[in-house]
Amino acid sequence: MAVWAGVVTVPATAGAAPAPPGVDDFYRAPDGFESTSPGTILRERPMRLASYSALPFNAQAWQLLYRTTDLAGGPMSAVTTVILPAGPPPPGGRPLLSYQMATDSIDPGCAPSVAMQPGSGVESFTTQGQMTFVGQALQRGWAVSVPDHEGPAPRVGTPREPGYVALDGIRAAEQFAPLGLSGCRPRSDYGAIRAAVSRPRGPRRCSPRTRRS
């Protein structure tokens, strides 16, 4: 047993590497998704978390496939990993942190939804290392959303689109009942490198919908 960023971990058992987008059918949007609103959850599944491919987190996690918007303004699907820490929420309700990891690669195996799983490859080492920050948020009792902000077809330096993915990932997380994120509550996001500079301005106050501008 070990402690990683304040989160109790246990050694992982060896297993197959997670399937990347393009191979895993979970990432494929269902027919008709184009008619849904941004942030609509299209598919969900539970998952296991691990740091550096071998240290699982003592937290519940799910992958959400949801509707978002691409650079041209058309419908697109994306995946976010949502995480619920063990224990009761902090006084005043559970905050939500949207964390956009630095990937520095268009390799599908470096997508956060792949890199955060047990058995992920060394090519995603940079992404895996950022689980430290996720662990710190979980230790504070925060829920966390980690979107694959580069989208289903990763590109370098794409403006706006990664921000749409991140903001619609917040919408999806707030709709996901197991997280218990109903009503007006503190929300924050943290982006690294391209994710930060690509993010459109979001809401400055609590409102029924997450706003883009």
Automatic annotation (TrEMBL):
Gene3D superfamilies: alpha/beta hydrolase. One of its GO terms (molecular function) is triacylglycerol lipase activity. Residues 201-213 have a biased composition (Basic residues). It holds the Pfam family LIP. InterPro entries: AB_hydrolase_fold, Lipase_secreted. One of its GO terms (biological process) is lipid catabolic process. It comes from the Bacteria. Residues 194-213 are annotated as: Disordered. This is Lipase. It comes from Rhodococcus hoagii.
